[in-house]
Amino acid sequence: MELLLDPSHLAVLAIIGIVAGFIDAIVGGGGLLSIPALLAVGIPPHMALGTNKLAACFGSITSSYTYYKQQLFTPHFWKTCAIATFFGAILGSGLVFLINANWLEKLLPLLIISIAIYTLFSPKAMGGQHCMSPSKTPSNNRQGLQGVILGSYDGFAGPGIGAFWTVSSISLHKLPLLESCALARIMTLISNITALVIFAFAGQVNWLLGLWMGVCMMAGSFIGARSAIRFGIPFIKPLFIISVVSIATHLAWSAWV
Questions:
Q1: What does pTM read for this prediction?
Q2: pLDDT for res 200
Q3: Per-residue DSSP letters for 152-195?
């Protein structure tokens, strides 16, 4: 514990927390920074995942509230998605303790690289002229399928989950970019809280470091969400591409090299 509380480690975690919160609020993927940072200061793998969930909750709450206040999210349209995400996160978090993740580690880079290529070359990927705010509840079947799959993935691992939510929401529900970002943040908040409870019951959360990093992620998330709302697609799209390519490179290196 003395090693974990070394001032230099706390300073590094603070900086990484701010940057991770900023990225998470816009395109997701902050866990690719925060989880390795926690591992580097001596947190065991399962506890690093649980501690990261605690920290991520702070950032998700901040960015979710910011998007909601800007009227970019209509809660009663997304009840099915929220319920499906909740149960998906329970399933995914339980599987963390049961499944060897080697196969998933090798598959994830391919999936995320595919998202990057699709986003780069498809003019509709980040919201085109056919995307508009919904005037009624989007398809419950699509919401349910999306919520279960992505909630399970976030409960299990979670790298790049914001990118998955953003792109799939544009594709499935024809949402504008900012509303897709808002939906992504609210749903990841649900899966983060659900997974946190499960990891906490399993004793896999370092509360002190999680709270410290969480406060820093909260600051980064506030700046990130405000920046996304103010600058829109010209700001988000290049950051999205850089983020997903970086995530894919990191995962490919870890899994294959």
A1: 0.78
A2: 92
A3: HHHHHT-TTHHHHHHHHHHHHH---HHHHHHHHHHHHHHHHHHH
